[in-house]
Amino acid sequence: MTNAKVYAKLLAKQILYMLRVNLFKKQANLVSLRLLNKLKENEASLSGWVIDHENDVKENSEKYKSSVLFYLKNGFKVYPGSRLETLILSAGKISWHRNFAT
C-alpha cells in the first residue's frame, strides 16, 4: 500500500471518528434537553449547582466545557453571589421557577 493510500485510510478513520463523537454530543444534548423539559413539566421550581467556568481539566486532559449556557438557554437564572467552593469543585447556583421561565 502506498503512503498516499495509508494516509487516506487514516484520514477517513479520523473523519468517521469525529462524526461519531459529534453525533454523540448532539444526541446527549437532546437527551438532556428532553429530561430537563420533563422535569419542568412536573415541577414548579428546580435548583442546583453548575460549573460556570472552563478552568477545570478532565481526566483525559481535555478542558471541561461548562454547561451553564445550556441552563441559561432553558430559562434558569444564575446567582453569582451564591457559590459552592470546595477543594475539588467550584460551581455557581442556578434555579428555574415556572413564574419567570420563558
Describe it.
The protein is of the alpha+beta class and 102 residues long. It folds into two domains: 1-42; 44-102, no CATH class. It has helices spanning 3-42, 68-73, and strands at residues 45-50, 77-85, 90-97. Strands 1-3-2 form a three-stranded antiparallel β-sheet. The termini are far apart. The model has no long low-confidence stretch (mean pLDDT 82).
What's the total number of strands?
3
What is the count of structural domains? 2
Query: What best-fitting shape do the alpha-carbon axes yield?
Result: elongated
By secondary-structure content and strand pairing, the structural class works out as alpha+beta
Q: What is the tally of helical segments?
A: 2
Q: Alpha-carbon distance between the termini? A: 59 Å
Q: Biggest sheet: strands, sense, closure? A: 3 strands, antiparallel
How would you state the average pLDDT, rounded?
A: 82
Strand content: 15-25%
SSE arrangement, N to C: HEHEE
Radius of gyration: 19 Å
Q: Which regions contain 5 or more consecutive residues with pLDDT less than 50?
A: none
Q: How much helicity do the residues have?
A: 40-55%
Give me the side-by-side strand order of the main sheet: 1-3-2
